[in-house]
Amino acid sequence: LSLKFGDIGNLKGLVIRFLLTTSYYQLSVQNWFSLHRLQLLYNHSIQATFNATRIYAPASYSYHCEHVSSLQRYDALLIPSSANDLSKLWEVTFTDFQIQGFNIQEGHFAYAKDCASFFSPAILMGLVMSLILLLVLAYTLHMLIHLKSLDRHYDCKASPTYFGQMKDNDMGDEKEPLRSSGNESYELRNQQFCKIYI
């Protein structure tokens, strides 16, 4: 597959050639295509050759990637073919790259297999947060399971601090009249016991 720039200024005579191969894989039971090599030609002579890595897709699909480049900051999918080659003098970067070599219908790209990794930083952060929330949930369930339930019947005795005795000399009496204008009322002198049923 050759990309020719024609008579566009300084790019006149520049050709980018993509060498694509197709193979049948029994595990996926379908044909896959891959970009095997990329060549830069200028005035019909090869200036640089790059071996392509990890650029493949099912033959009925297209391949898409945000950056296909020979630079390390873009993950370097294009590698110079040899150490002595002039390819090291070239820096090649395709932005919003999409290619399909086979089974093209009506001049449109088919569904694209994207090069995006399954473990992008956003996905990794989501997995870490999910793990933290899962640990918190597990700890909460652990605490709930080991929570001791209250006894069905238990007695509580009121503290003497809440029911202080009025006078020391009248300890024998159970009740003592309160002084008030009008009706006569009584207050219990001894401590109370209560039962709570759950």
From TrEMBL:
PANTHER family: ATPASE, H+ TRANSPORTING, LYSOSOMAL ACCESSORY PROTEIN 1-LIKE (PTHR12471:SF3), VACUOLAR ATP SYNTHASE SUBUNIT S1 (PTHR12471). It is found in: Membrane. It is a single-pass membrane protein. This is VAS1L protein. GO terms for molecular function: ATPase activator activity. Pfam families: Ac45-VOA1_TM, VAS1_LD. The chain crosses the membrane at residues 118-141. The keyword Transmembrane applies. Residues 117-155 form the V-type proton ATPase subunit S1/VOA1 transmembrane domain. Residues 1-102 form the V-type proton ATPase subunit S1 luminal domain. Signal peptide: none annotated. Gene3D superfamilies: 2.40.160.110. The keyword Transmembrane helix applies. Keywords: Membrane, Transmembrane, Transmembrane helix. GO terms for cellular component: bounding membrane of organelle; cytoplasmic vesicle membrane; endomembrane system; proton-transporting V-type ATPase complex. GO terms for biological process: regulation of cellular pH.
